[in-house]
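Page 47, continued from p. 46.
Same chain as before, 292 aa.
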Amino acid sequence: MIVTELKNSQRGNKSRNSDLARLSGQVASLLEVAGTSGFIPQLAAALREWVAVDEICLLAYPQDGSPEIHYREAPFSSPGLDAYVAGPFLLDPYYVAAARHQRFGFFSLAELAPSGFRKSEYYRDYYRFNGLSDECGYLIAVAGGTFINLSLARNQKGRKFTLSELRLLDAISASIGALVKQHFIAPESEAGLPEHESNLRSRLELTLSAFGDPVLTPRERQVIQAVLHGHSTKSLALELGISLETVKLHRKNAYRKLSVRSQSELFQLFIKSFMNESGNESTMASTALRHP
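Result:
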C-alpha cells in the first residue's frame, strides 16, 4: 500500500515538473517575441498546448474608445465581430465585468453572464449566429485605462469547457496577464495601445443608459436594460427586490411604449439607437443584425 502511494506520488511529481518546464519554456519564448506581430499567434498556439480551443480572439478596449480587434480567427472573422465593436459590445458580460466592475483575471462565460443570458437576443445574434457554444477568457488591465479581452471559444454544439480545463487555464492566468501586458507596453512595441476616439465609449454608454428616455419611466428603463443584458424575469426580480408580476408589468408597459412586441424587436431598436452615435451604420445594418 505504502509502495503504491509512493509510486503514484512520484508519477504526480514528474507530471507537475513536466508541466512547469513546459510553461517556463513557453514564457521564455513569448517574452522574446513580445511587442512583435508574432506574439499573439504564438500565444494562441501555446494556449492550445494546454486546452483544446476552437477559436481565439484578442480585443483591446481603450479607456474611451470603441474596441480594437488585434487578432481573430473564424468565426470571429465573420462580419458579426465588426458589428459587435460598433456598439453591442456594451452588452457583453466580459466588457461589463471589466469596464463597470473592474474585474480582471480568468473567467468562464457562466461566471459572468446573467441567468437568462443564453435566451437573450444578444446571445442569439452574437454567439449562436457566429456558431459559438461556449467561451472563457482573460480580462487584463494594461495601461491608461485600456484593458484586453483574450477570448477562447468552442464552436461545436454542446461542447463546453470542462471544470478541469477551466481550472488549468485559471492556474496560468498570472503568466498570461503579465505576458500580454509586456506585449502592449514594451518599448517600440508593434502592437500599440488603441487611440482614444473623442469620448466615443462614453457617448455609447450614455446612449445605452438613456435608451427609452423620455418615453419610459426610470424603472421601466432599468428593466429594459436588464432584459437587453440577458437577465431572466426571476433574476431581475431578485436584483430589484420586486415581484415577478411587477417585472412582467414593467416590461409589458415598456414594450407598448416603445412599440415593440418581442425581445427581438427590442434588440433591433436598441441597435438602431447606436447607428448615428457610432457612425458605423453600414456595418451594423449589414450584419446581425440580420433581422428585418
